[in-house]
C-alpha cells in the first residue's frame, strides 16, 4: 500500500528532517494564525456598534519591544532549524569526498527525465531501466539528474527533497532508504500533457535481495526461436518498435522510449498509467493513446494476432 501522506511518513534521515521542519513551521504558523485571528475576532465583538472610536494609544516602548523581539525569535528559530535541515540533507558521506561537483566517477545512478517517463542507468553495472529505481537500504546514493526535453522535477517524498531535472544542466540529489519497501516517486513540475503520468517507484532492497535483483537485471533474455514469442520478436523488429525502444541482446538499441530489456519484471506500464500484467500490456499495445493520451507512443492499430505475438514476446523479457 502506498503511503497516503508520504510527506508525514519519512523513510530516510533526509525525509525525516524535512518532515520535522515542516511540522515545526506548521505549528509556529498555526499558533500565529490563532493569535492573529483571535485578536481580530475579539476586536470585532468588543468594539461592535460603538459610535465613538475606542481610546487610542500611541507609543508604548514595552509593546514595541515585544512586537520586535517576538517575531525576531520566531525568524531566528525557523532559520536555525532550516540551516540544520540543509546541513543534514546535503551532508556528504565519507566515500564522496570530492563534493557536489565531482564528476561521473562518484555518481551511483543517472536519472534522465523524458516526456513522460524516467530513464534510469546504474553506474558500474550499466543496467538501464525505466520508471523504477532499485536501491540497497542504508546507503546514501548519489543520483545525477538530467532532462532530455523540458524541465521535470524528481520527487520521492518519503526519501528525499525535490530536485529539478533540467536540459543541459546537471543536478545532484541523494537517495537513501532506511527500510526495504516501495516508495512512490512523482514528477513535481508541470511538464506537458502527461505530467500526471510521469510516476516512478524507488524499490529498496536489503543487501541480498539487491544483489539478486542486480544479477537478474544483468542477464539478457534469450531471443525466442519458436512459437508466438518468436513471431513477436520478429514483429518487434519489423514494426517500428525498435526505432524507439532498446532490448539488450537484440538489434533494438534506441533510447527515445523506455528500455524494455526487463519489461515483464516491472510493476507498471506507461510511468504509472496502469499496473503491469499481460492483459494490461495487450490493452496498452492495442491503443496507448486511450490509456495515456498524448504520449509519444502512437496507436499502431495492431491486429489481434499481432497483439498476441507481441505480448508473448514481451512477456519473456524478465
Ligand atoms: Cu515531468 Cu512533470
Layout of strands and helices, then pairs:
Blueprint (H helix, E strand, L loop, with lengths): L12 H34 L14 H30 L18 E6 L2 E6 L5 E3 L1 E5 L4 E7 L4 E4 L7 E3 L5 E5 L5 E7 L12 E6 L1 H12 L8 H12 L29 E2 L4 E2 L2 H9 L1 H4 L12 H12 L3
Parallel strand pairs: 1-5, 4-10
Antiparallel strand pairs: 1-2, 2-3, 5-8, 6-7, 6-9, 9-10, 11-12
Helix pairs in contact: 1-2, 4-7, 5-7
Can you give a write-up of this model?
The protein is α+β, with helices and mostly antiparallel strands and 318 residues long. Among the domains are: 109-218, Immunoglobulin-like; 227-316, Immunoglobulin-like (Sandwich). Helices cover 36% and strands 18% of the residues. The chain has 7 helices and 12 strands. It has helices spanning 13-46, 61-90, 207-218, 227-238, 278-286, 288-291, 304-315; strands spanning 109-114, 117-122, 128-130, 132-136, 141-147, 152-155, 163-165, 171-175, 181-187, 200-205, 268-269, 274-275. The strands form 3 sheets. A 5-stranded mixed beta sheet has the order 3-2-1-5-8, with no helix packed on it. Helix 4 (227-238) crosses helix 7. The longest helix is centred in the first third of the chain and has 34 residues, at 13-46. It starts with 12 loop residues before the first helix and ends with a helix.
Amino acid at each position: 500500500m502506498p503511503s497516503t501522506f508520504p510527506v508525514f511518513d519519512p523513510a530516510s534521515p533526509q525525509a525525516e528532517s524535512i518532515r520535522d521542519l515542516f511540522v515545526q513551521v506548521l505549528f509556529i504558523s498555526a499558533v500565529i494564525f490563532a493569535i492573529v485571528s483571535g485578536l481580530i475576532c475579539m476586536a470585532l465583538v468588543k468594539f461592535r456598534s460603538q459610535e465613538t472610536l475606542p481610546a487610542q494609544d500611541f507609543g508604548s516602548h514595552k509593546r514595541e519591544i515585544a512586537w520586535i523581539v517576538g517575531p525576531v525569535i520566531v525568524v531566528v528559530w525557523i532559520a536555525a532549524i532550516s540551516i540544520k535541515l540543509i546541513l543534514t540533507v546535503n551532508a556528504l558521506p565519507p566515500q564522496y569526498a570530492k563534493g557536489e561537483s565531482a564528476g561521473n566517477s562518484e555518481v551511483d545512478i543517472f536519472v534522465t527525465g523524458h516526456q513522460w517517463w524516467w530513464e534510469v542507468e546504474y553506474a558500474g553495472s550499466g543496467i538501464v531501466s525505466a520508471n523504477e529505481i532499485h536501491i540497497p537500504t542504508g546507503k546514501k546514493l548519489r543520483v545525477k539528474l538530467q532532462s532530455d526535453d523540458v524541465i521535470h522535477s524528481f520527487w520521492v517524498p518519503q526519501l528525499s527533497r525535490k530536485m529539478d531535472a533540467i536540459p543541459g544542466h546537471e543536478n545532484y540529489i541523494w537517495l537513501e532508504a532506511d527500510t526495504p519497501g516501495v516508495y512512490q516517486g512523482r514528477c513535481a513540475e508541470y511538464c506537458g500533457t502527461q505530467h500526471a503520468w510521469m510516476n516512478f517507484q524507488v524499490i529498496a532492497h536489503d543487501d541480498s535481495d539487491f544483489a539478486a535483483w542486480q544479477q537478474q537485471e544483468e542477464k539478457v533474455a534469450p531471443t525466442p526461436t519458436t512459437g508466438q514469442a518468436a513471431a513477436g520478436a520478429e514483429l518487434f523488429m519489423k514494426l517500428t518498435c525498435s526505432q524507439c525502444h532498446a532490448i539488450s541482446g537484440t538489434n533494438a538499441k534506441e533510447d527515445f522510449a523506455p528500455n524494455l530489456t526487463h519489461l515483464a519484471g516491472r510493476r507498471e506500464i506507461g510511468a504509472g498509467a496502469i499496473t503491469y500484467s499481460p492483459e494490461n500490456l495487450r490493452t496498452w499495445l492495442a491503443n496507448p493513446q486511450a490509456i495515456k493520451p498524448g504520449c509519444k507512443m502512437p496507436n499502431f492499430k495492431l491486429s489481434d494476432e499481432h497483439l498476441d505475438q507481441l505480448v508473448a514476446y514481451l512477456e519473456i523479457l524478465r
